[in-house]
Amino acid sequence: MRILIVGGGGREHALAWALRSSDLITAPGNAGTAEFGCNVEVAPHDIENLVAVARERHVDLAVVGSEVPLVCGIEEAFRASGIPLVGPSSAAARLEGSKAFAKVFMTRNGVPTADYSVFDSDSFDKALAYLRECEPPVVIKASGLAFGKGVMVCQTTQEAEAALDHVMRAKAFGSAGQEVVIESFLEGEEASVFALIDGDDYVLLPTAQDHKRIGEGDTGPNTGGMGAYAPAPVVTCEALDRICHTIIEPTLEGMAREGNPYQGFLYAGLMMTAVGPKVVEFNCRLGDPEAQVVLPMLDADFEETLWRAAEGSLGNYRLSHKKGAAACVVMASGGYPGSYEKGFPITGLKEAASLSNTVVFHAGTSMDAGGATVTSGGRVLGVTATGIGLREALHRAYAAVDQIHFKQAYYRRDIGVRGLAHLEV
Ligand code: AMP
Ligand code: GLY
Q1: 124 in contact with ligand 1, CB cutoff 6 A
Q2: Nearest residue CA, atom 3 of ligand 2?
Q3: pTM score, two decimals?
Q4: In whole angstroms, how far apart are CA 64 and each of 82, 89, 111?
């Protein structure tokens, strides 16, 4: 089957790796995806040209990595061309594209989430009055897509007032801040749960935990994610059961009932609170770097899995997971998530990849004129390994990291520490 993967980060390299026995085209791809097929120079938001490529090259199935094309309607464009695509329609992708929509949807469907209120751009004074009634800490969110930057966790009312001003008056996030969600702070440990939904039925992928902050001990600014592991021991079997019954099922049933049946990956970002799991956010795609640990843990024909999701035939299909664990350490350019230099040669990739049970996923890499792999982005590599348990997976991932060198490389040394703590109790 010929499959088009839309995107060019570590997540899309992981998708290509999981689909490596298929005939693959990746748009735009990266140095890693090029190993499994061909890359075409079309940007993920260039929906018209993606459809054109898919038609010309007789693509049988498309799968979308990131949220932007989904929110912009890529599913509708492919459907109109008769090419099956794994990913929700733009109406269903509002679960990620509009936090205001997601919150109101959750309330309507009884899905547990933080208490909140939504305000539009004309209601600054009302928002301020509401905020002053809230017990800090409080969380201010730009409703629209803000590339992970639109969420501000504020420890004091004063900080929250400044954040509100930043979003609503200074319009720091442009149109993404036209609506603002003010919500209460949830205490607990975060976890990511991924379902693949075909409109009616779903299968679960392994759970995972991301490491969003740049610094060790979860300090410093938020990033796209500095590492991940799967499964996440904080999500016990009982908790997962509860997540299915109180979050995943009401969400897919609610979306179908309201006329926006959900097809594709649904990523529930959860807080495991003292009173049970609550939704922090929904995303309409796989996580990055979570995909790098979740996909290696599947024990399935992934092409068939995706095809069934796109065709609505997940029915009583069972998606098996491997035993053991996977861990991914992100190697980033020094300075990320702020400014950083690019173009540094990367050495040791072959040595790292030759280690047992290890895969090095490329994110911000490219080839220079002489064919050498060089850094070209903030998150450069997702160094991933599997093992009989989390400890072994982490040990292997860090052994591979030790082989890889580029100027100003930065990575966290404490990936998986929370997971290990659960396993050692
Ligand atoms: P989001 O983009 O909504 O996932 O938010 C980014 C990060 O902000 C989350 O991963 C959490 O670490 C944090 N966050 C968002 N909302 C809340 C909340 N209500 N309580 C605690 N932390 C939150
Ligand atoms: N790793 C967080 C995300 O993909 O949104």
Answers
A1: no
A2: 287
A3: 0.97
A4: 16, 12, 26
